Amino acid sequence: MPLSTGPSAPTYGALLLRGLLAGLVAGLLAGLFAFTFGEPKVDAAIAVEEAASQAALPAESSAAQEEPLVSRDGQKGGLFLATGLYGIALGGIFATGYTLLRRRLRTPSDVRAAWSLAGAALLGIVGIPYVKYPPNPPAVGDPGTINQRTISYLAIVVIGLVAVWAAVVAQRTQPTEWRRGAAAVLGFVVVVVIGYALLPNINEVPSTFPPDLLWSFRLTSLGTQVVLWTVLGLAFGALVARTPAPRPETVAAA
Q1: pLDDT digits 0-9 by tens, 187-231
Q2: 48, 175, 180, 217: which has the fewest Cβ within 10 Å?
Q3: Is 226 part of any domain?
Q4: How far apart (Å, rounded) are the C-alpha atoms in residues 11 and 151?
């Protein structure tokens, strides 16, 4: 008598392949968003920097300035390559995290699990760091503090992920729905407030830099990240939902 086994979860290799593909699509669309809305802001910021530099230097020094190693047109063309590769790497990490955390997400829907994971990552990796250390245009910042800024930014990314984890753990300790929601918000806010208080404030934007240009760049940068994570979550969820069910294995009865 033939016996049929139940459907099994897709292998890590299958999920990784879907993550890489979803990451590539997300990276290219994020690159398109950054090219359309972000590059004009970068051009304007560079023009502000060049005008300030030429005003501060003597005429002969200004005329002797070296050409950049990569032209602006080359940088704009390389933007899609950079975001595409970044998206592929991020998709691989996302698929690995999904594989490790799938059973702990406590939902029977693979699509909902993928969306939840992408939303949590967007909040912890992008949202929390953005409020503490909003991005600045390439022409803004002190090169002498780059190590401090890098370490501080990595620290706030870790704190953002811990805050999301604390919210999930806190809400699972409560028996009723409203108490679970309150516990999640409380756990999240406590970790974020402590993290913000411990890390240094960094503000190196010159007072003469146009504030409207600064915030236009920051909003565009945030929009690029939102596009990246949203498309990654949606695409990965769609690819997981289209995973073919394993064929029943027929075992000959003894």
Answers
A1: 999 999 999 999 999 888 888 888 899 999 999 999 999 999 999
A2: 175
A3: yes
A4: 36
Same domain, yes or no, for 133 and 186? no
Are residues 115 and 31 located together in one domain of the fold?
yes
Distances from the Cα of 177 to the Cα of 158, 168, 172, angstroms = 28, 13, 10
pLDDT band at 131 (very low <50, low <70, confident <90, very high): very high
In this predicted model, what pLDDT tens digit does every residue of 21-64 receive, in sequence order?
A: 999 999 999 999 999 999 898 888 888 877 877 776 665 555 55
Q: Decide: 225 and 160 in contact? Cβ < 8 Å.
A: no
Q: What is the 3-state secondary structure (H, E, C) of the chain?
A: CCEECCCCCCCHHHHHHHHHHHHHHHHHHHHHHHHHHHHHHHHHHHHHHHHHHHHHCCHHHHHCCCCCCCCHHHHHHHHHHHHHHHHHHHHHHHHHHHHHHHHHCCCCCHHHHHHHHHHHHHHHHHHHHHHHCCCCCCCCCCHHHHHHHHHHHHHHHHHHHHHHHHHHHHHCCCCCHHHHHHHHHHHHHHHHHHHHHHCCCCCCCCCCCCHHHHHHHHHHHHHHHHHHHHHHHHHHHHHHHCCCCCCCCEECCC
pLDDT by residue (tens digit) across 160-175? 999 999 999 999 999 9
Please check whether residue 132 is in contact with residue 209, taking contact to mean a CB–CB distance below 8 angstroms: no
Residues 196 and 150 in one domain: yes
The pTM of this model reads: 0.84
pLDDT tens digits, 100-124: 999 888 889 999 999 999 999 999 9
* Beta bridge mates, 3: 251
